Every structure is written in structure tokens, then in C-alpha cells.
Automatic annotation (TrEMBL):
Protein's job: Regulates mitochondrial small subunit maturation by controlling 15S rRNA 5'-end processing. Localizes to the 5' precursor of the 15S rRNA in a position that is subsequently occupied by mS47 in the mature yeast mtSSU. Uses structure and sequence-specific RNA recognition, binding to a single-stranded region of the precursor and specifically recognizing bases -6 to -1. The exchange of Ccm1 for mS47 is coupled to the irreversible removal of precursor rRNA that is accompanied by conformational changes of the mitoribosomal proteins uS5m and mS26.
InterPro entries to which the protein is assigned, alphabetical: PPR_rpt (IPR002885), TPR-like_helical_dom_sf (IPR011990)
UniProt-recorded name of the protein: Pentacotripeptide-repeat region of PRORP domain-containing protein
Compositionally biased region (Polar residues): 37-49
Amino acid sequence: MRRCLRYAATPPCRAYTKQQRRSLTTSPMVRWMDTLPGNQGTSTTPSTLQQQQQQQQHHDRPSSTPAMATSGILSQFYRGLATQNIDQLWPLYSTMYQHHLHTRLTRNNYRQLVQVTARSAKTQRNLHRLLAIMEDMQTLSIPLRLSDYNIIMKWVGGATVPERRPRHLTDALAWLSTMEQQTSPVIEPNVVTYNTLIHVASQANDILTAQRLYHAMLAKGIDADAYTYTTLLHSMATMGDVEGVQEMVARLQRKGLDTTLLHSTVTWNMLLDCYYSAESTTISTPTTTESMMDEDEDVMDIGEDKVDDRYQSKADTMFHAMVDALRDDPQQQQQQTVTTAPRADPITFQIHMDHLLRQQQRDDAIRLLLDTMPRHSIQPTITMYNKLFASFLIKEEEEDDHEDIITSTTTSTASSQQQQQQQQQLRQLYTSLLQHPPQQPPTPETLYTLINALLDHHDTTLALEAFVHLCQEKQLAPCQELLDRLSGVIQDVPSSSID
């Protein structure tokens, strides 16, 4: 059993036994080396009776490994380095490790191996390989460089998983501690180190740790770069720290970084979503950014428990500027000043539509999808259709009131007109979905929201037609709740109507 990595805080930062190292490869090279004199008993592959007899014959031969075999495996490994393919290299390296030939590799060979692994696909298997290489380097007294530490921090920080967890941040910080404790040679973190850690903390939704890392970087005299500010900006926007976003934007403008960072559709969409999300919040406590910003800046005090609607106006201005930019020629827009808004994309319209639906402005949201977006040749997302369909759903607590309104003699006419209008809007949205399909195909949520909305507004015929079409043509599987409701509807509908 090999010694566990002393620097690993949590799995998978651990060492491997020879048996585990062997399990990472199925190359025939391992079996070939096992047939060499003196190498019996190391193969984990089940042997037939004939193979066992051959191994017994080899056992009777001298136990020394031929120099030709040693030079052969080393030559193949050196040629394998040129392929830059870890899946081809690892079987060779694993074989060398099993037969203690890895000790003949030079420092540069190991650093090449680290670079090849770092460029490979971000998978758990390759993470285990990278950790094993790092352990071997330390066992052979090959000091890790700053770039090696930066690589491993990025990998253990959740690069191999779709969603980062707090343990990934813990693992990355453990490697930072190991790097700072290294004495021969002494290694100091750089801006890449802190950017990697700040990104991991932001992805883990740990804004406080991201802020502490930012302060630590400044305390060491390391200047933050564009990536640092962008990461912090997105992190604060995700956490809803609107005042923090405002402060960060102001800092970028003072440093002259807004020309490259803020003039992009992705950044404007992030700011747009952040400002719209703040429209219903109340301001009663200081933001977390007060602990991060160290410059003397005055923040507007708008009082306690008051809805801050200044951000809604700012977001509306940004949205219309991005839509106006669609009328400009892209080449001419690049030649304009940096104050010009970037061009809107489908996500821009989706963010604005979410705002309209929160403001109970569904008619405007429908016009946005059916009129404004086609006029600018912007294709809607399936999420936009899903949210519009969902806005027509009648909640259970509203259902009784809805029925009372329909049966009331004084309001029956107005209610009937409203229901007809809503049925017409649903039909228009469904027709648009069929005639102008979005890039993403309909989802089970599309099926659920559309059919239930049609049934809520008593458009049974279209509900059944849409159900059959989406299930057969789009191969969507309905949930049991929807099936149960449709079964009840079919029982109540006359057979002649179904035909």
C-alpha cells in the first residue's frame, strides 16, 4: 500500500495501491511486461491453465529484466509523450510504475506528463491520474512548480463535475496551504492562483470566501486583473448583491477595464437580470460588499424597507439600448464608441420577459415573443414558451373564484370575452411554437404547462390535439398527474366531440 497523499484533505485526493493503479489501464503492455523474466505474479488478469504453465516456465528462468525490454518500454513512453494523449500514455506509465521504471524519468518528463494530463478531458479518471503523478513527483523529490499547483487547484476545485460543492473549495484551499508550506523552493501564489480559487468559491456560492481571497491577494501586493473582477461581479450578481454589483462596476470604470469587460452581451445580460431581480427587494441591511470594498465611496441611502425601483429603470434603459443595437450593422457597431450597448440575444429577451411576467404584464410579454423577436430575427428559447404557458395556469385557490366569476350573471359577458382572449393567446403561442420552433426541442414541462393551461381555459379540443402531437411527434412522456386529468376530461367529453 502506497502512502496516502499528505496534502489531500478529502477524497479523491488519495494515493493508489499497485492494484488500483493497475485498474486504471487495460493495455496489453502490462501483460507483456508481466511475461518478462522475474515479473511473474504482478498481473491482475485471470489466467488460463496454459498461461499459468507459461508463467511457471518463466519462473524457472533468471529473474533479471532484460535491458532490451527496459529500453523498449522507455522508448515507447518517450514516443508516447509526443502524442499528447493521456489515454495512450497512462498504460505505459502504469507499466513502468509496476516495474519501478518510473524512477528513470527526468524532471522534465514528469512536467510534460502533468501538462498532457492537464490538457485532457476533465474526468474523474484523469483527476486520479493527475493526483497519482503529483504524488510520484513528491516521492521522487521532484518539487512542484507554481503552474503545477495552479493546475491541481483547478482540477480538485470541481473541474470534473457539473456543479461544485463546498468540499471542492476545501480541497483547493488545502493545496494552497501545501504550496505555501513548501520550502525548497519557496513558491508564492500569483494572480492565476487567486483567480482559480476565487472562481471555485464563486461557483460554490461562497461569496465571503471569495472576498477573503480577494483581500488576501491585495494584501500580498498582487493586482487584480480583468478575470478577477469579472468573477466577483458574476458571483455578486448571482447572490443578488445589487449594491455590490454597482460598486464593482464603478471600480472597473475607474480602472479603465469597463471597455473590455462591460461591453459584452453576456455581462449586460448578467447586469440586466441582477437589476430586474432587485425590483421587488427591500433595502434594510448593508450589503456584503461593504466588507470587500476598501475605497472611500458613498453609497446612496434610500431608506429602510423601501422598494428600490431605480434599478428597474436602469434595466429598462439597458434592454432597449441592446434591442436598438440590433438595428445597427455589426461591423459599424464595432467601430463605434465603447458606450454603445452590445447586441441583444435570446437570453436578453428572456430576462426581460421574466420581468414583464413578474409585473403581471403578460400581454406585453406575448407581444415581445410574437412581434418584437421575429422582427429582429431572434429565435425564442423553449424556456420562454414554458413560462408563458405557465402564466395561464389557474392556481387551485383561484379556481373557485374563477368559476364564480364565470357563473355570475353580472360579469358573465366580460368573463366570456376574457376567456376567449386567453384562449386566442394560447392558440397563437402554440401556433408559433409549431411554425417557428426554437433551437431547443419541447420538454416535458412544455407538455405539462401547455395542456393544463388549455384545460384551465376550457379549450379541450386543442388540449387533446396538442397532447397527441407533442407525445407522438416530439416523443414526450407525460407525467401521471397530467394523464389522470386527461382521463377525467375524456370521460366528460361526448364521444362525438372526440371524433
